[in-house]
C-alpha cells in the first residue's frame, strides 16, 4: 500500500529546502499543502521580508549580511561571531548565538584576568571555535579542548610556554597551521581518531619528544614538525602517502622515524639537518625523493630505495656515515644525476654516475636580458602594471622573498624541483624557452612542459 505524506510530515521535508523557489513550488503541489509555509514560526532560509513565512516569531540569521526583520524580537545567530560581541544584552531583543569564537582579543577586551573565569565561559556550548592565543594570558599547564568545540584556528596555542599537555576532542578534524608552534614545554598531545590533517608548521619549534600519529591522519603539510629540537621518535600513520617539504627540518635529536608502508613521496628538505638520525627504512613504494631531502643527515647508516625511485639533486649531501647505499642503477650506471656536493658520498659505492653541471653563472647575463625584454613587454600592457616590485630573476628558488607573487623562470634556472613551501603568495609564473620543468609546490602541483617559447599560467591556491 502506497503511503502518503500529510501536511505535518511534509513540513518536516520542506524545512530542508535551500531555495525560495522550492518553498513556493511546495505549496502548489496540492491543496492540502497550500498552508504548509504558514506553519513555520522561523525561517529555514535567509529572508528579507515575511512574505514567504507570514508568521515568523523567531528569525534565524545565517550570515553577517542577513537583515533583521523589524517585526521580530527573537533572533538566532548561526554565523561565527567573536565572544566579545555576544556579551551585550538588549532590553528589546532576545538573541541566541550558536557559533561563538573566543580568542585573545576577546579575553583582553572583556578583561578576563583569571583562568577560572575563562573556564566558566568555555562551558558555554555555543563556543565552537578556539581562536588565536586565547590561552596565552594564563599559566595553564594542562588543557582539555571542550567537547562542543569543533574547530581550532591557526596559532591557537602558538607561543604558549606554559602548556605541557593538551587533549583534543573527537569533534576536531584538523590541527591548524602554527597550532602548537613554539610551545616549548609541550610534552604530551593526545590525538583523537577524528583528526585527518596536520597543517603547515602545526608543531614547529615545540618541545614534544615522542609522537605516534593515529591511523586516521593521512595528510601532513610542509614544516609540520620543523625545528622540534626535542623530538626523538615519531611513528607516522600508514594512511600518509607523502612526507611534505621540510616536515622534519632541523630536528637535531630525531633518531627514530617509522615511515608508512605505502608512502609514495619524500619531498625536498624533509629530513634536512636531522643529525642524529641513524636508521630509516624507506618503503619500496616510494617513487620520489626530493632535493636535499636528507641533507646533513651525517649519522645515517643505511639508505635503500627502489629501482623506480626518482631522486632529486643534493638529496644525500653530507650523509658521510653511510655503510649501505642502494639507489637506482641501469647497467651499472646511476639513473639519477647527482650534485657536485654529493660526489664524496656516492663515490664510495658507485663509479659510474653523472654529476649535474651548474650553468647558473653562465646564464645569468642571458637571463637578465630575457627578463628585461619581458619587463618591457609587461610595461606596455596596462593590465600588468600592478606586477611592479613583485618580479625577480631566479637562480636559486630557495632565496624567494616570501611575499613574492610573480615569478619569471628562464633557461638558466636549474632547480627542477623547487621548494615553494614558504611562499604562499605566488599566483603567476612565466616560463621561457624551457624544455622540461617539474615542480612540486604547496599547491600540490606537478607540471611537465615540453619545449615552449613562452608559457604563462596562473596557480590556483
Automatic annotation (TrEMBL):
What's the domain of life for this entry? Eukaryota
Per the record, which residues fall in region Disordered? 356-390
Q: Where is the signal peptide?
A: none
**Which Pfam families does the UniProt record give?**
LRR_5
Biased-composition ranges for Low complexity? 381-390
Coiled-coil region(s): none
Quote the InterPro entries the UniProt record gives. Answer: LRR_5, LRR_dom_sf, Surface_bspA-like
Query: Which residue intervals are annotated with compositional bias (Acidic residues) in the record?
Result: 361-380
* Record SUPFAM superfamilies: L domain-like (SSF52058)
Recorded protein name is Leucine rich repeat containing protein BspA family protein
Q: What is the species of this protein?
A: Entamoeba invadens IP1
Amino acid at each position: 500500500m502506497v503511503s502518503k505524506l500529510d501536511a505535518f510530515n511534509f513540513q518536516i521535508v520542506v524545512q530542508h529546502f535551500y531555495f525560495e523557489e522550492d518553498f513556493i513550488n511546495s505549496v502548489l503541489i496540492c491543496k492540502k499543502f497550500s498552508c504548509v509555509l504558514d506553519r513555520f514560526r522561523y525561517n529555514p532560509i535567509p529572508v528579507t521580508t515575511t512574505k514567504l513565512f507570514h508568521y515568523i516569531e523567531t528569525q534565524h540569521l545565517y550570515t553577517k549580511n542577513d537583515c533583521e526583520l523589524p517585526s521580530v524580537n527573537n533572533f538566532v545567530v548561526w554565523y561565527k561571531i567573536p565572544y566579545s560581541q555576544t556579551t551585550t544584552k538588549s532590553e528589546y531583543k532576545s538573541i541566541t548565538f550558536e557559533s561563538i569564537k573566543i580568542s585573545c582579543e576577546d579575553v583582553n577586551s572583556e578583561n578576563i584576568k583569571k583562568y577560572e573565569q575563562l573556564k566558566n565561559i568555555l562551558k558555554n556550548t555555543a563556543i565552537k571555535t578556539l581562536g588565536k592565543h586565547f590561552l596565552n594570558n594564563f599559566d595553564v599547564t594542562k588543557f582539555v579542548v571542550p567537547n562542543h568545540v569543533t574547530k581550532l584556528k591557526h596559532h591557537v596555542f602558538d607561543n604558549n610556554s606554559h602548556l605541557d599537555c593538551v587533549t583534543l576532542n573527537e569533534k576536531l578534524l584538523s590541527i591548524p597551521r602554527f597550532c602548537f608552534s613554539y610551545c616549548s614545554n609541550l610534552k604530551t598531545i593526545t590525538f583523537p581518531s577524528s583528526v585527518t590533517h596536520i597543517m603547515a608548521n602545526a608543531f614547529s619549534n615545540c618541545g614534544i619528544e615522542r609522537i605516534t600519529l593515529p591511523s586516521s591522519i593521512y595528510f601532513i603539510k610542509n614544516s609540520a614538525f620543523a625545528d622540534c629540537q626535542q623530538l626523538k621518535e615519531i611513528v607516522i600513520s600508514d594512511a600518509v602517502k607523502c612526507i611534505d617539504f621540510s616536515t622534519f627540518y632541523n630536528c637535531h635529536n630525531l633518531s627514530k622515524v617509522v615511515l608508512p608502508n605505502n608512502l609514495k613521496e619524500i619531498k625536498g628538505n624533509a629530513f634536512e639537518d636531522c643529525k642524529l638520525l641513524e636508521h630509516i627504512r624507506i618503503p619500496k613504494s616510494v617513487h620520489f625523493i626530493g632535493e636535499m631531502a636528507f641533507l646533513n643527515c651525517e649519522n645515517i647508516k643505511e639508505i635503500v630505495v627502489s629501482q623506480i625511485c626518482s631522486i632529486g639533486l643534493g638529496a644525500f649531501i653530507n650523509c658521510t656515515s653511510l655503510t649501505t647505499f642502494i639507489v637506482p642503477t641501469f647497467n651499472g650506471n646511476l639513473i639519477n644525476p647527482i650534485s657536485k656536493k654529493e660526489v664524496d658520498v656516492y663515490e664510495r659505492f658507485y663509479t659510474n654516475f653523472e654529476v649535474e653541471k651548474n650553468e647558473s653563472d653562465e646564464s645569468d647575463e642571458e637571463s637578465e636580458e630575457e627578463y628585461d625584454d619581458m619587463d618591457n613587454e609587461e610595461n606596455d600592457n596596462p593590465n600588468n602594471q600592478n606586477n611592479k616590485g613583485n618580479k625577480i630573476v631566479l637562480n636559486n628558488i630557495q632565496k624567494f622573498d616570501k611575499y613574492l607573487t610573480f615569478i619569471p623562470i628562464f633557461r638558466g634556472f636549474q632547480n627542477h624541483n623547487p621548494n615553494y613551501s614558504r611562499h604562499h603568495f605566488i599566483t603567476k609564473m612565466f616560463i621561457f624557452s624551457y624544455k622540461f620543468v617539474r615542480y612540486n609546490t604547496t599547491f600540490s602541483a606537478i607540471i611537465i612542459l615540453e619545449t615552449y617559447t613562452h608559457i604563462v599560467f596562473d596557480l590556483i591556491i
